[in-house]
TrEMBL record:
Its cofactor is FMN. FMN binds at residues 212, 234, 236, 267-271. This is L-lactate oxidase. PROSITE patterns: FMN_HYDROXY_ACID_DH_2 (PS51349). GO terms for molecular function: FMN binding; oxidoreductase activity. The active site is at residue 236. InterPro entries: Aldolase_TIM, Alpha-hydoxy_acid_DH_FMN, FMN-dep_DH, FMN_HAD. It holds the Pfam family FMN_dh. Belongs to the FMN-dependent alpha-hydroxy acid dehydrogenase family. Residues 37-339 form the FMN hydroxy acid dehydrogenase domain. It catalyses: (S)-lactate + O2 = pyruvate + H2O2.
Length: 339
C-alpha cells in the first residue's frame, strides 16, 4: 500500500476538520482548532513547513558507491531510521471519533515498533490514556516514549510509575504544552516549570528524560542544566503560541550552543525524507513527525504506518546517496544551502 492510497482512505474516516491533504503543510486547516490547525492566525504550522523548503541540497555523486546506512541509535536502542512518530492527544476531538487516544496510541506504538522506529505517545486529562499507552509500550519490548504533560511533581510521579512498569526506554515531557487551554487553571496545577522544578522531576526519573518544546538557546541551556538527556526543538506544531519562529530557523543556533552535550531532536513541518536529511544537516540527531502519522492510522492502521515509514526511509536514503553521505554521521551542513 502506498501513502497516497492510505490518504485517500483516510479522507473517508476522519472528522470534518482534517482534509488528509496530499501535502500536510497547514494551509487547508489554518487555525482550525479543535482540529489539526495552529493557534491564532494559523501561520506557525505553515511557516514550519515552508522553512524546510527554503533549504536546498548540494548534490555530489563523486563519492563512494555504497548503500547509505540509515540506522540510528538513542539511549542504547537502535532504529532503522532517525525518525519518531510524535505525540498526539485528543484525537477524537481533533481528527474524528473513529478512535480515542487509547486505541490510537495502541496502534501507533505497535505499528512503529513493527516498522523499525519508535513512537512518542500522548497524554491528557483521561488517566486511561497514559495507562493504555504504557501497556502498549510494555507489549512492544519497551519501544516507545510516553510523553507526560507538565503536571506538578506529584502527578508526574504517579504517571512515572506506569512508565517504569512499562519498561519504556525513555520518557518525555512536552513543556510547551503549558500553552494548551485545558492545562490552564486546573488543580493540581500544571504548566510552566522553573529550571529548579524541572531538575527535581528529572532527579526522580530513573530512565533518560527528554524535554520537548525547546525554542531558544536559553531554554536549551536550562533543560541541559536541569539534567535532560535530550531535547526536542519544537513549537508544538504552532498550537500553543502564535507568532513563533519556525523550528528550522532556531535549530542551528541551539545546535551550536549545546555543542554535542546531549542529543537534539526536532519537529514541526517535517514531511519527507528530504526534510529529514535537511534537519540532520542542520545538526539535529533525529526528527519527530506527528500529523501525517494520524492520517496513516486512520486510513490503514499499522499498514498505513509502514507505508509512511517506508516512504520516508526511501527518500532519506536516496537523498543521502545523492549528496555523498554514506551514513547519518556523514551528513553535514556543507550538503545543504539556504535559499
Amino acid at each position: 500500500m502506498k501513502v497516497e492510497d492510505v490518504l485517500k482512505k483516510a479522507r473517508t474516516q476522519m472528522g470534518p476538520n482534517c482534509k488528509s491533504c496530499p501535502i500536510c503543510n497547514g494551509r487547508a486547516c489554518g487555525n482550525t482548532m479543535p482540529g489539526p490547525g495552529a493557534k491564532g492566525t494559523g501561520t506557525v504550522a505553515i511557516h514550519n513547513y515552508d522553512a524546510w523548503q527554503n533549504i536546498e541540497l548540494n548534490m555530489d555523486t563523486l563519492c563512494e558507491n555504497v548503500e547509505a546506512d540509515t540506522t540510528f541509535s538513542l539511549f542504547g536502542k537502535t532504529f532503522q531510521y532517525p525518525i519518531f512518530a510524535g505525540p498526539v492527544g485528543h484525537v477524537e476531538l481533533h481528527y474524528g471519533d473513529k478512535y480515542d487516544d487509547q486505541v490510537y496510541n495502541h496502534i501507533l506504538v505497535r505499528g512503529c515498533h513493527q516498522a523499525g522506529i519508535a513512537a512518542f505517545t500522548g497524554d491528557g486529562m483521561n488517566a486511561d490514556t497514559m495507562k493504555v499507552a504504557c501497556q502498549s509500550i510494555k507489549e512492544n519490548e519497551g519501544i516507545g516514549i510516553p510523553t507526560i504533560k507538565p503536571w506538578n511533581e506529584q502527578v508526574y510521579l504517579e504517571k512515572l510509575e506506569m512508565v517504569k512498569e512499562a519498561g519504556a526506554f525513555a520518557v518525555a515531557m512536552d513543556v510547551d504544552a503549558a500553552g494548551l487551554p485545558f492545562l490552564k487553571g486546573i488543580v493540581p496545577p500544571a504548566g510552566r516549570k522553573t529550571e529548579k522544578e524541572l531538575q527535581a522531576i528529572i532527579e526522580k526519573t530513573p530512565m533518560p528524560f527528554i524535554v520537548k518544546g525547546i525554542m531558544t538557546v536559553k531554554g536549551a541551556y536550562k533543560a541541559w542544566r536541569a539534567g535532560a538527556s535530550a531535547i526536542v526543538v519544537s513549537n508544538h506544531g504552532g498550537r500553543v503560541l502564535d507568532g513563533c519562529a519556525p523550528t528550522a530557523e532556531v535549530l542551528p543556533e541551539i545546535v551550536r550552543a549545546i555543542d554535542g552535550r546531549i542529543p537534539i531532536l526536532v519537529d514541526g513541518g517535517i514531511r519527507t525524507g528530504v526534510d529529514v536529511f535537511r534537519a540532520l544537516a542542520l545538526g539535529a540527531d533525529g526528527v519527530l513527525i506527528a500529523r501525517p502519522f494520524v492520517n496513516m492510522v486512520y486510513g490503514a492502521q499499522e499498514e498505513g504506518i509502514q507505508a509512511l515509514v517506508d516512504k520516508l526511509g526511501s527518500e532519506l536514503k536516496d537523498t543521502m546517496e545523492m549528496c555523498g553521505a554514506k551514513d547519518l554521521q556523514s551528513i553535514h551542513k556543507d550538503m545543504i544551502r539556504l535559499k
